[in-house]
Write a structure and sequence with these properties.
Layout: E1 2-4, E2 9-14, E3 17-23, H1 33-45, E4 53-57, H2 63-71, E5 76-80, H3 84-93, E6 102-105, H4 109-115, E7 121-126, H5 141-150, E8 151-163, H6 168-177, E9 183-188, H7 190-193, E10 199-206, H8 212-220, E11 227-230, H9 231-238
Parallel strand pairs: 4-5, 4-7, 5-6, 7-8
Antiparallel strand pairs: 1-2, 2-3, 8-10, 9-10, 9-11
C-alpha cells in the first residue's frame, strides 16, 4: 500500500519501494536521479521557460509536473494514473497549487495515449510501473507508434525503464521504439550500462535530432553521473534485438530483491 512520511518533504513509497519524492517548499528540487535526468532532458530539448504541452503517463506524487509548472509557467500538463487510490492520497496530502496547469485523470495510460489528438504534445513522459515492473501493454510496437502520433515534430518521448545485464528488455525496447522514431538515446549510470547492477535507464526518442551533447554534459555533472549512449554505440548495444510485437509483449523483469528498497 502507498505510504508517505509526514513532513514538508514527502517520500511516497509503494510496497516498501521509493516511488516519488516531493518537496512542497521547493518543487524544483528533485531527489531521485532519474527525475533529475528527465529534467535535464527537458532543459536541453526546449528553450528555458518555454511553456510545454506535456503528457505524463504515470503520476506518482506529480514530482516532474510540479517542477515543470514551477520552471515553465503556462505549461499545460495532463497526468494519467490508473491507481485511483494513489490519486486520492496525493490530492489529499500533496495538492498542486491552483492555476498550476496540471490535470490528473484516473485511467489506463495506453488507452489515453491512443485517444490523444495527433501532434498534441511537446513531450510524453512514461513512468508507469505495475508494482515494480513496466506493464506489458506499454512495451509493444503499437504502443510506440501511438506515442509517435501524439508528439509534435520536435517533440520528445522519454520512458523510465529498469533492467540489468544482459539487458534483453532494454534492448528490445530500443529496437521497438526504433520502428517509430528515427532518433534514440539512452541515459544511465555507467555501472548499470556495464552490467554491474540492476537499475534505471531512460529511453529517449524523437522525430528530430536530440540534444545529446548538451544532455551528456548535464547528466555527467550530477552527483551520480550518468552517460548518454547514442549513434554507433547505441546501435552496438541494440544489435540483434527485435521489436516487440503485441502478442509477444511481456512486463519488464522483476528487480532483484532490495534493488530499489529503502530503510
Amino acid at each position: 500500500m502507498p505510504d508517505v512520511d509526514r513532513r514538508r518533504a514527502w517520500l511516497l513509497t509503494v510496497d516498501g519501494a521509493p516511488q516519488s519524492y516531493v518537496d512542497l517548499d521547493d518543487p524544483v528540487h528533485l531527489e531521485f536521479e532519474y527525475t533529475q535526468r528527465l529534467a535535464h532532458l527537458l532543459d536541453a530539448a526546449f528553450a528555458p521557460g518555454r511553456p510545454l504541452d506535456a503528457l505524463h503517463l504515470g503520476g506518482g506524487a506529480l514530482t516532474l509536473p510540479r517542477r515543470v509548472a514551477a520552471t515553465r509557467p503556462g505549461s499545460r500538463q495532463t497526468v494519467v494514473e490508473s491507481d485511483r487510490g494513489l490519486i486520492a492520497l496525493v490530492a489529499e496530502h500533496l495538492p498542486v497549487p491552483e492555476g498550476s496547469g496540471i490535470t490528473v485523470h484516473g485511467t489506463d495510460a495506453r488507452a489515453w495515449l491512443e485517444q490523444a489528438p495527433p501532434a498534441s504534445a511537446d513531450v510524453v513522459v512514461a513512468d508507469v510501473f505495475g508494482g515494480s515492473r513496466v506493464p506489458a501493454h506499454l512495451t509493444s510496437v503499437d504502443y510506440a507508434r501511438a506515442a509517435a502520433r501524439a508528439l509534435r515534430p520536435a517533440g520528445v518521448y522519454a520512458a523510465n525503464l529498469a533492467d540489468g545485464a544482459p539487458f534483453a528488455f532494454l534492448r528490445s525496447q530500443l529496437a521497438t521504439f526504433g520502428t517509430a522514431f528515427p532518433e534514440l538515446c539512452l541515459i544511465a549510470e555507467p555501472s548499470v550500462l556495464r552490467g554491474r547492477r540492476f537499475g534505471n535507464a531512460l529511453l529517449v526518442a524523437s522525430h528530430a535530432p536530440l540534444p545529446v551533447e548538451r544532455l551528456a554534459r548535464l547528466v555527467a555533472a550530477d552527483a551520480f553521473p550518468a552517460r548518454v549512449e547514442h549513434g554507433a554505440a547505441l546501435d552496438r548495444f541494440v544489435r540483434g534485438a527485435r521489436p516487440v510485437r503485441e502478442e509477444d509483449a511481456v512486463p519488464s523483469p522483476e528487480p532483484p530483491e532490495g534493488a530499489f528498497s529503502i530503510g
